[in-house]
Each structure stands twice: as structure tokens, then as C-alpha cells.
Amino acid sequence: MLRTPTNRDMTTHPTHQYSLYRSLLGGLLLLCSLFASPAWSTEHVVRMLNAGADGSMVFEPAFVYAQVGDTVRFEPTSTGHFVRSLAVPDGAKPWLSELDVPFVVTLSHQGLYFYNCPPHLMMGMVGLIQVAEAVNRSTATAVMKSTQGRIYSHAARVDSLLALVR
Ligand SMILES: [Cu+2]
Prior knowledge:
Layout: H1 7-12, H2 15-36, E1 43-52, E2 55-60, E3 63-66, E4 71-75, E5 84-87, E6 103-106, E7 111-116, E8 126-131, H3 137-148, H4 156-163
Parallel strand pairs: 1-4, 3-8
Antiparallel strand pairs: 1-2, 4-6, 5-7, 7-8
The structure holds copper (II) ion (CU).
């Protein structure tokens, strides 16, 4: 049977206690959502193309400047491509994606990340990501220069990428 609230009900369930609980819960939910998908991180998209603004067999954009915690999503817009890292900063995990499958890299450390598409390396299908400070500049540059010797067409792309490092 229903009854009207009495003074006694109001003291056992004080309104201010309920609203405090609600704001705590709200704060907790907000914190959880912040950690689940950080509002301050950016997803950069790099497309893998048979033909782009810079000629055939390209990553577009080939140079990305990012911050720690950002992600890069490699989109297999054209078929026949995948992506493999050739140089990453100390502590960062090297990567290798599958053919024609979108691939997301989380940029865990600052520095330079140099990568290529192995079947099209000879055609200069390379790219570079700079995350904050280029702390591994000399190591990455050495890898890029030695890789350049294995490229038959568009080898100058390596120099263009190096020139973009801040
Ligand atoms: Cu390719």
C-alpha cells in the first residue's frame, strides 16, 4: 500500500546526500570516459595509394607530425599495400601490418618513426612520422639513408621527408 512521505523518510534519505552521491558517480564516469578515449589525442589518417599527388605508390600524407598518445591509422585505399616500420624510437614497438587491412599505430614515444611498404620499397613507398622532439634523429637518419640506397625510383622522397623534420 502506498503512503505519503513523512518527516522520518526525509531524514533517512537526505536529499543532499543523494545529490553528493550522484555528483561523485558523475565524476567517476567522466574520469572513466577520459581514460577510455583521451579527448586530447588525435588520430592521423595515412592512405596507401597506387597513385597520389607525389606520383605512384605513395603514403599520403607521407609526413605526419604528432604528439605522444596520438594514433596513426593506415588506410588501404588502394589494394596491394601494407606497412612495416624500419626505425622507431627506443622503447617503441616496431610494427608490421597485414596486406590490405587497415592498421592503427599508437605513438607511445617521442621521436621519428620511419616506415615503408615492403613490396613497393623499390618504388619509394616510404613515410615518416615525427612525434614531438626528434630524439632519435641520428639513428633514424642513418636508417633512412641506407634504405634510400635500395630505392630505384623516387629515392628523393627520403630527402624530402628528412627536410620536414622540425
Ligand atoms: Cu605498397
